[in-house]
Amino acid sequence: MIGTGEPLDFGSYRGKVIYLDFWATWCPPCRKSMPFMMSMRKELGDEGLEVVAISVDEEKEAVNRFLARYPVNFAIAHDPDGDCPQKFEVMAMPSSYLIDRQGRIRYVHLGFRDGDKNEMREKVLDLLEEKP
Amino acid sequence: MAVDATSDKHGNSVTRMLAALSGAALMLPGVAGAASAAAEPRANVQYGHYDEEGDRITTDVYHGDFVLPVSDYFEFTFSFDQDTYSGATPSYTVPSGISDAVTAASDIDPVSLGLRTLLLNPRFQATSREVLNDIAAGNLPPPQKPTDVTKEILRRLARQPQGDLGKPLQVMSPQPLETRNQPVLGGNFYLGPATLSLSGGYSLEPDFQATFGSGNLSLELNDKLTTLSAGYSQSNNKIIRKPVSLGGPHDHSSGGKENFEATSIYRTINLGLTQVLDKNTLFRLNGGYSWRRGFLSNPYKLVYIKDEITLDEFIQVSFIDGAKDWSSVTNLDVAGFDLFREVRPDRRNQWTVSAGLNHYFDFLDASLHFDYRYFWDNWDIKSHTFDLAWYQNLPFGVTFTPNFRYYSQSAAFFYAPFYLSPRADGFYSSDYRLSGFGKIRAGLTFSKRFAKGIELVAGFEYSIHKGSLKLGGGGEKDYADIDSYLLHAGLRMALADFSRNLDSGMGHHHRHHHAWPVPAGVMFAHMLPAANDFMVSYNYAYSNMSSGMQTSGRHHVSDQELIDKACDGGVCSFIPNRMVMHMHMLNFMYAPTSWLNLMVMPQFVHKKMDMVPLPNQPPETEGGDHRATGLGDTLLIALVKLFDVDGHHAHLGLGVSAPTGRVDITFNGLPDARDNPIQSFGMQLGSGTWDFKPSLTYTGGHERWYWGAQVNATVRLEDRNKKGYALGNEIQGHVWGGYKVMDWLAFSVRNSYRVTGDVRGNIDQDVPTFANGDPQLTPLENPRNWGGKFWDIGVGVSLKAPAGAYSGHHLSVEWLQPVIHNLNGYQLQRDGTLLVRWGYHF
Amino acid sequence: MKSVIRILPGQVLAMMVLMFLAGCSVSPWERGNLAREEMLPNPDPALSTMRAHVFESKEAASGGQGGVGGGCGCN
């Protein structure tokens, strides 16, 4: 995790809906999705939405430089060795995984385009409505 | 319930769960087979300067382009190129043994200028005397017919080659200053794994006009690791050759001949494969086939062919027959004595095969590019190209790229420097571009990436073209060797920042600080608020003066008054009828600190003036238009903040205007000389002097109202420029006010007053004359017809992009209307000027 | 020309198959280096176009430049 240096612990998000995003500073659609993720977190954070964005950049400096220029309001993790993306079988950049309050992966979205925003938001709202 | 790394509460592995889910998810729309998203909006500007050794071709290239994504699936592209070139280029080659040939050593062209001019040529006269002396002295047999004497004179002048011919000698012909313009419009469609690119445009220069279009389809396969592409392009071309004009600078009556026009079509298909080999390596393979039909020769180049026409035939057609019809003796176009226009085949089929490899060296943080291309065509030309580039990344966003290129080609089957006997197939060309040679180019490119999405690229490359460098030997002899260099500089910019969040309160949003709009026609009035800010702006001014001549206080001046009084020391023959000016200026601004801004402002100028004869001229006199196009003077300015409090701001500007604009542009575009006059002060591209440019600006505003004032001056730091004069000093004051109707829209009104001082000195050259020797005077060359007092009113509108990805862009348009102009002497009346400014604040 | 055509089918096909197999091992998250601007087939199109124009006006050969593909492979 950027900031604390602690390993990412999914357990700590129990009971919340997680928007898990795999991104990199070298991926233009990933960078473009940042403002969207920020607005989602700002709008729905109180209702139980957590956003965790895992950067797969091989160089940590690149991530730090990016965040210095574009600070974000959600958690950022860094996995330069490819373990996480491999386990999640990431097939495209960016990839977003919506995880419900019970910890089950409910939705996978490959890529990011402007037209995807509404759909993602709908799915997140659906998951938030489900009782823990 | 925790989702641990490998299994859920039922022990199902994440992998299987994902597989199940992903399978389901993939059936949902919008997930499967997503294509590459459209790129971010970007723009580039670039300048190139190409120069050949000696006084051969010099070219200035100006380029601008932008990419604008319109939606997730479509982006729009536009580019514009302008080349300005001049100098000299080889026209033909002769063996030096006959370098005294009539057309080689002098400009006599008996074919077009006729016997009279030939007889006036001093060398012809000298040789005639020599021949007549020899006949009188008995060294030559007595002539049977008068033409025997002419034949002997020509034979001596031509000195028909016998024995050792000596080295080939290239004879140059001048290339007048000309401009080529090329706009290209395009679109890229992102459709799933496929991308379709379409583009079309045209290229216009005085003797070549092309309309072209292309389409390319690419397909991403194999998880986007493999890309296949196929494309087709076509260019329809028109080739024009103009006749020679014979009068003085303002006399454009054509020599009676028409333009030569021809057409050609080029079609090309290409196929490509790009393959990712590993995470650091990319491989590409391309193949192309092009077929060209139509007029493929160069309409200006000539060839020397001995024995195509006999001396008797030459004399018969040149001097005896009235009609000068060469078709009875040759199929070729005769351009001089043993000189003919080149003829290339009208079909050309060409193939290329190329391969390239890019590899990134992680431990060095550098990439290597290697490319090889093999070319062959049905003109028997085969060529190899080896390209190597090493991109070395260094700290601070700097990249150094040394690059190297080796090119080798074999000659076309019909190429020869000159021809000692005619060819059976009738094809001839001595253009060095079709000869055998090798060329080595070495260069270095430097680029610096700034934090805000701006990258500066500059570089230098030097080329050596030598016959002896041809792979395998057998290239053209060294008379055709030539060196050249290319200097280039450019700026690549991101036009929007999609990573930027709309929500202010995060990151730098000082750009939303009080940035009062500035009318489009006022320079140096805006300062960047924070350190490390950049601004790039494009300023355009258009003026069209077609309301006739004016003098102080009077808008209408009679022709007789102009004839008698407007020209210094004589009677006027021509007056300007219309002048059009386009000025394009780029402004690069950087704030090293919050109180200092540095600006570099190059400009590109295009001026066109139409002249018409006054009634005192004979009726058949024609006027004509004259142009000057090219780089203008470059401004280097520093702005220093004096105070900035409560919405009131003032700053001081100090800087210079560097004389990068030419002041030696002639009427006919050829190099200036004592007998080839240059255009007047107002038609040159710059002042020719270093000028001091101080300014003092105040801006203020309150709620929706804003206002400003500025005083600026231009003080010439030299008494005379290299052509013998200095323009007058200037002082100018502006006052403006405006109202912001909306956050993004404002209107302004401006009041400007300018005083322009007198020209000192005068252009140091002979007065231009008509063909008969009479002087051609116009009011433009009279230094007393310069300067004055100008009062203008401007009305403008300013637009600003809203907060978000595109914030930082602004556009202003203004119309500047002359109110009262007190002109010195007799000048063209000034009509309004249209001013546009687009800027992007990074 | 004839000798080039003889090379084309057999050896190039073999090359292409090898390339395919090699390329299969790059995962989407490993494409950072390929996404670098200097690793694109045509890193600076404006500069390459300017150079190509200068070369093609002084040499007999033309074409063979450019290329699409490579890059970050993002969606």
Please name the CATH topology of the largest domain in chain B: Porin
pLDDT < 50 runs, ≥5 residues of chain B = 1-37, 104-114, 504-512
Q: CATH homologous superfamily of chain A, by name?
A: Glutaredoxin
Distance between the amino and carboxyl termini of chain A: 26 Å
Share of helix of chain A, binned: 25-40%
Please state the structural category of chain A: alpha/beta
| Alpha plus pi helix count of chain A | 4
The CATH class name of chain A reads Alpha Beta
Question: Which sequence of SSEs, written as H and E, runs from N to C of chain A?
Answer: EHEHEHEEH
Describe this structure in words.
The complex is a heterotrimer of chains A (132), B (842) and C (75). By secondary structure, chain A is α/β, with parallel strands linked by helices. In chain A, 34% of the residues lie in helices and 22% in strands. Chain A has a single domain (12-127), classed as Glutaredoxin, CATH 3.40.30.10. Chain A has helices spanning 28-44, 60-69, 83-87, 117-129; strands at 17-23, 49-55, 75-78, 95-99, 105-110. Chain B has two domains: 42-89 and 173-246 and 255-301 and 342-494, Porin; 533-841, Porin (Beta Barrel), CATH 2.40.160.40. Chain B has seven helices and 38 strands. Chain B has a 16-stranded antiparallel barrel. Chain B has a 15-stranded antiparallel β-sheet that branches. The two termini of chain B are 47 Å apart. The model of chain B is unreliable at 1-37, 104-114 and 504-512 (pLDDT under 50). Chain C has one domain. Chain C is 45% helix and 0% strand. Chain C has two helices and no strands. The radius of gyration of chain C is 17 Å and the shape is flat. Chain C starts with a helix and ends in a 19-residue tail after the last helix. Chains in contact: A-B, A-C, B-C. The A-C interface holds A 22, 24, 26-30, 56-59, 82, 85-86, 90-95, 110-112 and C 27-33, 35-36, 72-75.
